[in-house]
Specification:
49% of the residues lie in helices and 11% in strands. The chain is mainly alpha-helical and 253 residues long.
Length: 253
């Protein structure tokens, strides 16, 4: 069947808006008029991406930055119409479609994920069932409950320290462990943690019946630590610190 003329026009019009350098505008449209749409749509999308990835934006020159965004705008097929999810679409583009370029810093994908996670957590719709939690519970004898808006992350690059003045060419020997969390004031914060605390959090997530003491004893065994009491005292201090930030909410009743 022949495509209706208005649909053909719409496809030509939107194809030009996405990639004006390579796709001509439909005939009989004054460039001054269509330029309004070209600038409005691109500038809106570019603004959302720049605000969602401020560190990455600061790393690239204006020319290279707009080259990335233009390629995304022209070729990425987004699966959501919501402006708030443009950052998620840009991350998917970087991970699956963009070909690495000489100007790209090492660790770009990890840095992009780290920046995206802030927005993702800010808008995450998670329910916290405080009725089942004792905020004054014993963190060693009970099961410490992690907030559903506290997400532990691990990166090979030190993404929290990267920026125009620090772009390591290869990942350091030790990974970076971070908890991104939404505090009681609904502010998104980041906390760098050590490998032992990261392992403790993982054990508490894996087993909802394990006590804080059992988890720390297991860690001491895994480390073959000569003095498990040191692990126990350090682990309790870590749990108390996590609770002070709202990452641990208390213990399960």
């Amino acid at each position: 069947m022949t495509e209706p003329a208005f649909k053909k026009f719409q496809y030509e019009f939107t194809a030009h808006l996405r990639d004006p350098d390579n796709v001509p505008a439909p005939a009989d449209i004054e460039d001054r008029r269509i330029k309004i749409y070209r600038d409005l749509l691109y500038n809106n999308v570019e603004s959302f991406i720049a605000s969602g990835f401020p560190v990455i934006r600061s790393i690239y020159s204006d020319e290279n930055w707009h080259k990335i965004v233009r390629d995304f705008f022209a070729h990425h097929e987004s699966h959501t119409p919501y402006f708030l999810e443009i950052s998620q679409e840009f991350l998917a583009y970087l991970e699956n479609e963009r070909q690495p370029q000489p100007e790209d810093p090492a660790g770009l994908l990890e840095l992009a994920h780290y920046e995206w996670i802030e927005l993702a957590l800010a808008v995450a719709d998670e329910d916290i069932d405080l009725a089942s939690i004792d905020p004054n519970g014993d963190l060693l004898n009970g099961h410490p409950v992690l907030s559903p808006v506290a997400w532990p992350l691990a990166y090979t690059f030190p993404v929290h320290a990267m920026g125009p003045d620090y772009l390591p060419e290869k990942p350091p020997e030790n990974p970076t462990y971070i908890v991104v969390y939404r505090n009681r004031n609904d502010e998104v914060k980041f906390l760098e943690i050590n490998p032992v605390t990261a392992r403790l959090i993982a054990l508490l997530q894996e087993d909802e019946t394990i006590s804080g003491e059992q988890a720390l004893n297991r860690i001491a065994q895994e480390m073959h630590h000569p003095n498990p009491d040191v692990v126990m005292s350090g682990g309790l201090a870590a749990l108390q610190e996590l609770q002070s930030y709202g990452i641990v909410l208390g213990t399960r009743k």
